[in-house]
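Just curious. Protein, please.
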Amino acid sequence: MRLLGVFAWSVVEDAMHRKVFYIILALTVLMIFLIPLLPSAQVGVQLDLMREAALGLTTIMAFVLAIIMGGTSIARDAEQRTIYNIISKPVQRWQYYLGKFLGIMLVLVITLALIFIVIGVFVLAKFRVFDPGLAKALFTIFLEASILTSLTMMASVYLSPLVCVFVGILFYVVAHVKGGYLYDAMNNGNPIARIGAGFLYYILPNLERFNINETIAHGESVFRVGLLDLILLTLMAAAFTGIFLYLGIFLFSRRDL
């Protein structure tokens, strides 16, 4: 456990020294503050628009951090040759790999906590509304990011960081549209397209289930996101994250370094 903590904290320290982390975080915060300046923000329910746009920006931020850090963490150590010093010591490869993943998760937790404070304070100051329900949306954003991180880390064992980013983007898009386009493709088109769509439909997670931003932004007026819903989403994320982590550790343990 101590080694996992050491590797995890090294990822946090590395993120603190990378300009891209601060750029992504600063741009997200800046764009959240600029939301009320949009022309459409003067029409309709401004509070709902503010929350939905802020959560949308946070989703993009978590997505970008997940695929960049997941796809470059191991490659960065290999480029700096620190990975060779680590694996030459009495350290199991799975400890290194899992520690890296936990470190990225910790960075995401810290970042999302900061965004929660920013959005919460901003909404409270502008609309005089304290909205703890935002934490539900940020939690599901974190769950989705954990799946993306585990996938891109698995891909990074043998693929370059640029290819890993592409894989992460492709996975994100396909897993979000599977409920609509893939389902339609399964029931229409030529046999080859139906087989391919069916394979992707049943093997990929439905990431759209984690998108509760609109529901939370509108105060859960249509339906309430309860504890059971969050537990089911957590189990779903844990299952796919666990599968990708297991495959990643399996591949990494057999890679020549």
Summary: The chain has a mean pLDDT of 84. DSSP finds ten helices and no strands in the chain.
